[in-house]
Amino acid sequence: MKRGQRVSKSDLLIKTLGDLDELNSFLGFSLNFVQTRVAKKLVPKLQESILRLGAQLSEDQSVNPSQQNKITREDTTNLENHIDKIEEQLKPLQQFILPGGSKGAAILHLVRSVCRRAERSLVRYFEDKGTQNKEILAYINRASDLFFVLARLENKKAGGVENRWKT
After folding, report:
1. Which residues contact 13 (CB under 8 A, 6 or more apart)?
2. Considering the domain boundaries, does residue 162 fall inside one?
């Protein structure tokens, strides 16, 4: 989008940016409920990354080709490293779990589902635009996985309650 250009509120970019904004708002809300140090430390950093991602989508590269706001492979790798460290503290899953548990875990499960919606919007936006930004898509996908393991860690801290899906 060019600076100052008017677009419809139904434009796919506006919808995608709105989904990212909603994700960021839920992340901020989650800070009122999370109990683990790792969540309290990571959530503000993730909020900044989501803002960077939105800025990357909306900036006109012909006017501002800055690399400052870019989501990079290093950002995605950083998420993967956090996921690995958190999973070391958790029991491996043998079956699906139902979203919920402690307040912190429940809100992080909600954050995860909002993140998945933002991911679907990003895919649709890139398909419509005829381009593919694999790093943004990898980043948002790994972010939702991070929210899942953070929710599991919150439940572990709250007493280990994970409601298993009974098939």
Report:
1. 1, 7, 57, 58, 125
2. no
Lowest mean pLDDT among 7-11, 35-39, 115-119: 7-11
Closest to 143 in 3D by CA, of 55, 20, 32:
20
Reported as a single tens digit per residue, the pLDDT across 34-43 is: 999 999 999 9
Q: Tokens 């999973």 sit at which residue?
A: 87
Whose tokens are 């290093």? That residue is 74
> Where residue 119 sits, what CATH number does that domain have?
1.20.1200.10
Q: Which residue has the tokens 């899942």?
A: 148
Q: Which two tokens stand for residue 16?
A: 């995608």
CB atoms within 10 A of CB 83: 18
- pLDDT for 66: 57
Q: Is residue 2 part of a domain?
A: no
Range of the domain at 87: 12-60+71-157
Which tokens belong to 7? 């677009």
